[in-house]
Amino acid sequence: MSNQAQNISPVSVPLAAKKKSKENSVWRRLLKNKLALVGMIIIAIMVIFSVFAPLIATHPPNAMDLANSLSEPGVDGHILGTDNYGRDLFSRIIYGTQISLIVGIFAIGLGGMIGTLLGLVAGYYGGKWDAIIMRLMDGLFAFPFILLSIALMTVLGAGLFNVILAIGVANIPGFARIVRGQVLAVKEEEYIEVTRSLGANHSRIIFHHILPNCMAPIIVYATMNVAGAIISEAALSFLGLGVQPPTASWGSILKDGKDFLVLSPHMATFSGLAILLSVLGFNLFGDGLRDALDPKMKV
Amino acid sequence: MLRLILRRLVDLIPTLLVVATTVFIITRMIPGDPAAVLLGPQASPDEIAKMRESLGLNQPMYLQYIDFLGSLLQGDLGTSLGYHQPVLSLILERFPNTLLLSVCALAIALLIGIPAGIISATKQYSAWDYTVMILSLVGVSMPIFWLGVMLVLYFSVHLGWLPATGMGSLSEGFGSVITHLVLPSIALSTIPMATFARITRSSMLEVIRQDYIKTARAKGLREFFVVWKHALKNAMTPLLTVMGMQISSMLGGAVLTETIFSWPGMGRLVVDAIENRDFVVVQGTVLFIAVIFVLINLLVDILYTVVNPRVNLSNKGEG
Fold first, then answer.
1. What is this structure's pTM?
2. Residue A144: domain span
3. Helix (H, G, I), strand (E, B) or coil at A78
4. Dihedral of the CA atoms B187, A221, A150, B28 (nearest 10)?
5. Could you give the CA distance from residue A121 to residue A178 in angstroms, rounded to a whole number?
6. Fewest beta carbons within 10 Å, which of A233, B153, B195, B278?
7. CB-based contact, A144 to chain B, within 8 Å
8. Would you say residue A69 has pLDDT above 70?
9. What are the pLDDT digits (tens) for B4-28?
């Protein structure tokens, strides 16, 4: 059956309408949830800060001015003050948003793609594939998340790409488990049997029929884990293993701030608040998404 | 029960094998010659050659792997290049400190998180409920390394109430250890506390609407007993699962907390080892923590069946 024929089949028309109506009701539920809305606003602000950082930042983020180091907030046009090198803290925090979002999105994208693929294979084929993949995932799951990232960063060396790789790898088992569980439930559905009896091959069944029905928990899990990835990046940079100076990262600003805690508490305070707010934003949005996609799961 | 525990122990073998293999692969990912990296840039070619020999790096990879597993089975995690001591003895020196910190943090999290969740559920949509829910939302989003820094700023630097770093010493009195323990325990307890409050609330909300609770109330049982005895017992099952995950992630969180408060535990050992490029210690500590992590999960699985005998341990986690 050609794709075009499938698109105009009498079954697919009501299905498409039903899908659209479901999407609308998810959006309605999401927009009604005030906390989710707060989360969405925080994420939107983060995206705006990232994209328009050169326009929003008041100073170049790495421009040093040692004569004005550790200035208080509001002094000499420095909204949030300056750091130990006299760099404008507001501008560095704005540019730090870019790093947090890049790491959050790409690390979760990487971990999500590999984990989803492994979960699909394990759940769909079962048997020895399931046993091998899930034992591997159980083993990786045995490492506390941050510790696995630390171990990987220690050998890979610091840098943005390696941070994404380390956090991405640490995220693989979580996605694999979630997707496998979903696949086990979905593959028993009647419509999968029907699709199979119509002669659809494995990859078509997996990617066209099973995967779309696993997307809701994947999206919720991914959103929540962007928050985790942002914290992990900040933690790695705080330990000196993440993004390297002079690149502005919230974790590295906090690390410097810790060394000047008595003289200039604003460095640690503002960088930490930025981490807290962004993580809170993704958590609120993730909570709202989960409630909107599956109200029964409400916590 | 014993048969089920034995079965779970057997199930752990492949998991532990993957853990060991992962650590082996990670250490072999060190770019360039691991011996040269371990010794640093000042090392002479002779020293590097000796190090290669002592690490068995001249052998084929599969023999290195077999040697690695053999050493692990004998409890040999290698010798630290910085401390010149067996890694296992370094870990065992510090493990009680991490355990003390984690247990205190867990106690704080349970003692505050569970009652907060229960009261929140029993007074749903009240000011208390909203306060607990907002605080727990902030709590689960808290970067504990930042909270640690802020606690030091206010309680040590500004108010001077509590020491900022170190562990104190029993020779200075029990109070010295307690005062040193307060801030790191609070920092480490924040995320589990908020998680327990959220899970307890949702689990209690489900339970207190069930018929047997209505019956207990109808029989005239005091509300205190209805909630804290009958409802809580059945609300404990999801809490136990989460507790296992939280205890495990606390071991990871301890790395950051111990760094901020200079607490002499395993986390501090890892961070110091990273700074000194002592990969043998990093490898050994990561492996040790992962094994503890696996054993805690086993313990939680067993507790799960004790609390809720209807749960079949052998089937848990499947499907």
1. 0.86
2. 23-58+84-293
3. strand
4. 160
5. 13
6. B153
7. yes
8. yes
9. 778 878 888 888 888 889 888 887 7
